[in-house]
Amino acid sequence: MEEPKLTEISQLGEFGLIERQTAGLKNVNESTILGVGDDCAIMRYKDTDLLVSTDLLLEGVHFDLTYVPLKHLGYKAVVVNLSDIYAMNGTPRQITVSLGISKRFAVEHIDALYDGIRLACEVYGVDLVGGDTTASRQGLVISITAIGDAPAEMVARRDGAKDTDLICVSGDLGAAYMGLQLLEREKVASAGQKDFQPDFSGKEYLVERQLKPEARRDVIEALRNAGIKPTSMMDISDGLSSELLHICKSSHTGCRIYEDRIPIDYQTAVMAEELGMNLVTAALNGGEDYELLFTVPLHEHEKVEKIPGIKVIGHITKEDLGCAMITRDGNEIPLKAQGFNHMA
Amino acid sequence: MEEPKLTEISQLGEFGLIERQTAGLKNVNESTILGVGDDCAIMRYKDTDLLVSTDLLLEGVHFDLTYVPLKHLGYKAVVVNLSDIYAMNGTPRQITVSLGISKRFAVEHIDALYDGIRLACEVYGVDLVGGDTTASRQGLVISITAIGDAPAEMVARRDGAKDTDLICVSGDLGAAYMGLQLLEREKVASAGQKDFQPDFSGKEYLVERQLKPEARRDVIEALRNAGIKPTSMMDISDGLSSELLHICKSSHTGCRIYEDRIPIDYQTAVMAEELGMNLVTAALNGGEDYELLFTVPLHEHEKVEKIPGIKVIGHITKEDLGCAMITRDGNEIPLKAQGFNHMA
After folding, report:
1. Does the pTM exceed 0.95?
2. Closest CA of chain A from B74, distance in Å
């Protein structure tokens, strides 16, 4: 592999690399409704849209088995894919699971991993329908593809936000990131110590958010019951800032969100204080919360406010106003995509 | 990860491990028609069956970049998945591509890989609709999922073979395996030598079969044009023996195939001679040919014999007769699954 003038991948980053490889792709099949660039691809069969989402998880990059139990890992690996299906306003139906397994793992380890996978399938009513299992030279490789469906008219993409739409978020933000900080801290503290007992007291919520996140099926159901179809929707995997910028870019809009409206749990705040980190930065850029970010028309204000656990954090604007957050003291600061970037 | 009484994965092998993890799985979604255990999973939407197949390819396990050009690798990674869709008598429509990329790779390397991926999409009329791109700590990871469709009544599974059905094979067998042997030999010969020129003269076909296999769309089309629906079908990725045993086990039948009917190319025979290998063993167990193995009712004999490149190699029997090959000298030897097993 000796070639002149090579370009480091970090110069492009993940999104840049994907854009480069998929630029100018033309779809030739009638069933292909939407390709690269949203939470899921969309295929249409009669009046049903099929949704497909896939994730690749690599040991040492996406998870650290020194503190992630294999059962939790299996559960989370499924949930993050289902979250993408819900984020299109769909219902997940099937998953395929491909595993690369190094010699370090015994059958019982894979049993534990699959315990988590099967539990997630059970909890979310999803069928495990296929996959591929192979040896790997180093570490554990997990590739999961989720398939779901939705009535064609119900699918929520990221490109449908309109000026004056309300920006809504489910649950609270930044907790999964703080959970990761906590687990990393205890890992460092435990290094070389036998029978080390990590101290998670008063921070159980943070650890749970990191190790065993849930996909917000309940929010999708609540929206349906309320008769609300989001104009755009994404799940928050890379951080609120990054996802909101995606929605605004795809929808050709701007946005304003309000610092004092961003939902943050008490434990997240305490942990940020302990670590001397900026709390709002953590909530904006933390990632892995798997909450839903969506927009609804202004006239749905009353209906959406009534749904428990949903918070209106701002509104969509015309594109030329840009994307910004109004701080508590009334200043406007531009939103930046500082989310996770494994390629940087 | 300290646990008592751990079981090595090699004790179960790939199929054993999959069986253990998927035993007793119950599907809960109406759209799930067929789960784990065939070339593809099947989902039904109205009168259309959706087919999903997935493969995980790991550097150092499935490919060796010292002799596999990245463009060929991209092409092959797609083709092997499409082959699974054709093997259900379907038409591939979409793929998703997930990549794990280590620091060793530059943007131009990924360009080359995608050149091959896009070429395969173009040749087979398939849309690239999504994926995931991430850093890897070591080596290249490729996970591809293919989605296809077929009218529900046309889908060919592996469990439909019936007593007296004819066993058919497309193309010729063992060439991809011999190509691999050749590439490995030249790799050893080139070790430490600068400007080494590998010698592939007279063996170009073997190298091509290994590096740039094709999926047999033409065979599927020919069968449709002839009005033949195979009673069972698989693609030959692990070797004829292994695949035929799968069909017979799933269909609760036995089989007889004839040594002198197994299609083998001249170059394959020459190479086996050179390496002192048993030619028929290579053709039975070689793997990676991506030819189609299928069964048709006896009364289709004339029609199927007329299709160029299809060979009838034997017939299905009642289960209690077992699975065997009749050698040139009239002996019966039992078929064994000695195909590739990365987990062994």
Report:
1. no
2. 12
